[in-house]
Design brief:
The complex is a heterodimer of chains A (283) and B (366). With 283 residues, chain A is mostly helical. Chain A is built from 14 helices and no strands. In chain A, helix 2 crosses helix 14, helix 4 (74-105) packs antiparallel against helix 11 and helix 9 (172-180) runs antiparallel to helix 10. Chain B is of the alpha+beta class. Chain B has two domains: 4-233, P-loop containing nucleotide triphosphate hydrolases (Rossmann fold); 240-363, OB fold (Dihydrolipoamide Acetyltransferase, E2P), CATH 2.40.50.140. In chain B, a hairpin with a 4-residue loop joins strand 17 and strand 18. In chain B, helix 2 (92-102) packs across helix 3, helix 2 runs parallel beside helix 4 (136-148) and helix 3 (107-121) packs across helix 4. The structure holds adenosine-5'-diphosphate and magnesium ion. Residues 13, 18, 36, 38-44 of chain B line the site of adenosine-5'-diphosphate.
Chain lengths: 283, 366
């Protein structure tokens, strides 16, 4: 397309679309910008009668961050949250893909009924299952342990459903060719099916990360000891009505919690958008 | 016992019977082609040989050993799928070597085998490419390569050329024949295309309705079909079938009347029993000739269409009773709309019962 054509195409309609996109972006970015603004300024400045919309003091912000790291269990909470997310992702991918492999590519007695149960599980809200799950975890003696935090999240009905849909699209010939080539059950899973599902697995990993990082309720219920606090819980402490932190300390804690997902988003931007589109159309 | 023996094999999916009591012997090194209309069970029979499909009844044995319960990978059969079934995430090398890698063969051994196959199939330059970067014909070669490196006792092909364009199909056909000569391995090939079957087969197996209609060398099936189905299926354009009445038969000939509505003809088929009855006469397009308007000829027809192909022409006619016929004639032999008389090569005409069974004379033949 020539530049002239492009120019002529730039109509009022295009201008409106741009204006709308910019407006939405502003609304989305402003809270994050405001956090940065509050953190990197002398205390009280941004919320004064004459607020500033840009950061004024790098030093003040760094001071607040060091204080938080020094005086709370924030660093450990990072560790717990990341471990929680990584273990959950690994578990969900492993359990989900193994189960989906059987459900989608092989016949076994009760397959339809079992899959129906999985679909049912998709429709039951978390609020209903959370108490029975708690009782179960507590009977297993898993309160305040990493197992207690991670294991209940491994059976992801949504993940299974998504992977089953994806694996159903794998041509039967490919599986049969592998069988004729002498590949065993597990070799077919590992060498053929998993690589073919790469995109679906990446999507599921991303969605699982978003979900576990943002999960507030379950860690709060299962981890009552400080050693198992996730980032979400630590931030919760700052935000609680009885805390006597000033607004900029609270803001700093919030900003620190938002940084990992932001970095994650920047790295996986393309896959996240694709993934949400995919899970939207397929799941 | 033959090298590959299919004995009283039946197959049903649930209550639907697909194959009934199939018997077939295949000699070592033979190129066998299963041909028949779509849905007649060719792929199913092939897949039962490979082990991908269970055998409902009967036995399949290779080299004297019953295969019914043997794992697919242990039967020594390699299959080439219509869809090629290449793994999109693997290079040509990885695709071809997949089976050997799964069997944990040594690296050098694998490289040797793959290179050998690559040389035969001219894949040397494509070894590092993925299927997405290959043309249809190249993918086909890779799929064949994957079969070759396993050095199977039997190659199984399920419509391997049907995704290729016409020109490439002809070329690949020649290459397959070449490959068969070179390897000398037994090959079983499934197609719905009778021309492909004729050109490739040592033994052509015509299937329909869950049964083997006839098996034998392609030209035997062409010249001497067992029934009307085989007669009509083999050959293009199709054999013409004309209804008629068998009037009388003696040691030297049968006399027919009302053939194609009107003609009285005699065919040199001796010793036909069974008395007067309705029959069907089969005449290949090349066994009919167009005679002049007033020349003597047994059959009469009205020309509806002439397809000029340059070297020859296909003349479409309707007989007196409305039966459509095709005559293979020289160029400019007839004009559409005209009435012509047809000469019959009576020695080559075939006779069928109305139920399709061939009526063979007991005394003279052909
Ligand atoms: N797994 C199956 N379940 C049920 N019916 C099948 C199955 N596979 C094939 N069939 C049926 O068996 C018949 C023969 O199929 P197939 O062997 O593929 O035919 P062909 O290869 O001659 O076209 C078809 O009617 C098909 O619908
Ligand atoms: Mg088929």
């Amino acid at each position: 397309m020539s530049p002239m054509r492009k120019l002529r195409r730039f109509t009022l309609w295009t201008a409106l679309k741009w204006a709308l996109a910019i407006a939405i972006a502003l609304v989305a970015v402003f809270p994050i910008w405001w956090m940065i603004n509050v953190v990197f300024a002398q205390a009280g400045e941004p919320v004064s009668l004459n607020p500033r919309l840009w950061p004024t003091s790098l030093g003040a912000g760094l001071d607040k961050i060091t204080t938080i790291f020094a005086e709370t269990g924030y660093l450990r909470a990072y560790g717990i949250s990341i471990l929680y997310a990584l273990l959950t992702i690994a578990g969900v991918l492993l359990v989900g893909s193994l189960a989906a492999f059987e459900f989608s590519l092989f016949e076994f007695p009760g397959r339809k009924i079992l899959f129906g149960v999985v679909l049912l599980a998709l429709m039951v809200p978390t609020a209903v299952t959370i108490i029975p799950t708690y009782v179960l975890v507590s009977r297993l003696g898993w309160l305040n342990t990493m197992e207690g935090l991670v294991v209940p999240g491994l059976a992801s009905a949504f993940g299974l459903f998504m992977l089953v849909q994806f694996m159903r699209a794998i041509p039967r010939d490919m599986i049969e060719a592998a069988r004729l080539d002498g590949a065993g059950h597990f070799q077919i899973y590992w060498h053929v099916v998993l690589p073919l599902c790469r995109n679906a697995l990446v999507t599921l990993a991303i969605l699982t990360f978003i979900q576990t990082w943002g999960n507030y309720m379950w860690p709060l219920i299962v981890g009552t000891k400080e050693e198992l606090y996730t980032v979400g819980q630590v931030v919760g402490l700052f935000n609680s009505p009885l805390s006597h932190h000033t607004v900029d300390t609270v803001m700093t804690a919030n900003l620190l919690a938002a940084v990992p997902p932001l970095i994650f988003f920047l790295i996986f931007q393309r896959q996240i958008v694709q993934g949400i589109a995919m899970s939207g159309s397929k799941g | 016992m033959a090298f590959l023996d299919i004995s009283a094999v039946s197959k049903s999916f649930g209550s639907v019977s697909i194959l009934r009591d199939v018997d077939l012997s295949i000699e070592e090194g033979e190129f066998v082609v299963f041909v028949g209309p779509s849905g007649c069970g060719k792929s199913t029979l092939l897949r039962m040989i490979s082990g991908l499909e269970e055998i409902s009844a009967g036995t399949i044995s290779i080299a004297g050993e019953v295969m019914n319960e043997v794992e697919p990978a242990d039967r020594g059969a390699a299959m080439v799928f219509q869809s090629y079934a290449l793994y999109p995430h693997m290079t040509t090398f990885e695709n071809v070597s997949f089976g050997l890698r799964m069997a944990h063969k040594a690296r050098d051994f694998i490289a040797g085998r793959v290179n050998e196959a690559a040389t035969i199939l001219q894949l040397e330059k494509l070894l590092m490419r993925k299927p997405g970067q290959l043309s249809g014909g190249q993918k086909q070669r890779v799929a064949i390569g994957r079969a070759i490196v396993r050095e199977p006792r039997v190659f199984l092909f399920d419509e391997p050329l049907s995704n290729l364009d016409a020109e490439l199909r002809v070329q690949m056909r020649a290459e397959l024949t070449e490959l068969h000569k070179r390897l000398g391995t037994t090959m079983i090939y499934v197609t719905h295309d009778q021309i492909e079957a004729m050109t490739l087969a040592d033994k052509m197996v015509v299937m329909a309705g869950g049964l083997i209609q006839q098996a034998g060398p392609p030209l035997t099936l062409y010249d001497d079909p067992d029934n009307q189905f085989v007669a009509g299926f083999v050959g293009s354009p199709k054999m013409n079938f004309l209804a008629g009445q068998l009037v009388s038969a003696d040691a030297g000939a049968v006399k027919l009347s009302g053939v194609g509505g009107a003609a009285e003809i005699a065919l040199p088929i001796g010793g036909v029993g069974g008395g007067a009855r309705a029959v069907t006469v089969g005449l290949r397009p090349e066994h009919l000739t167009i005679a002049g308007d007033d020349a003597p000829g047994e059959l009469q027809g009205r020309v509806t269409l002439v397809e000029e192909l340059g070297a020859e022409s296909f003349v479409h006619l309707t007989a007196a009773d409305g039966t459509p016929m095709i005559v293979r004639a020289r160029r400019d032999a007839a004009r559409a709309g005209s009435s012509v008389r047809l000469g019959i090569d009576a020695g080559r005409a075939l006779l069928f019962e109305r139920d399709g069974q061939r009526i063979r004379g007991s005394l003279t033949q052909q």
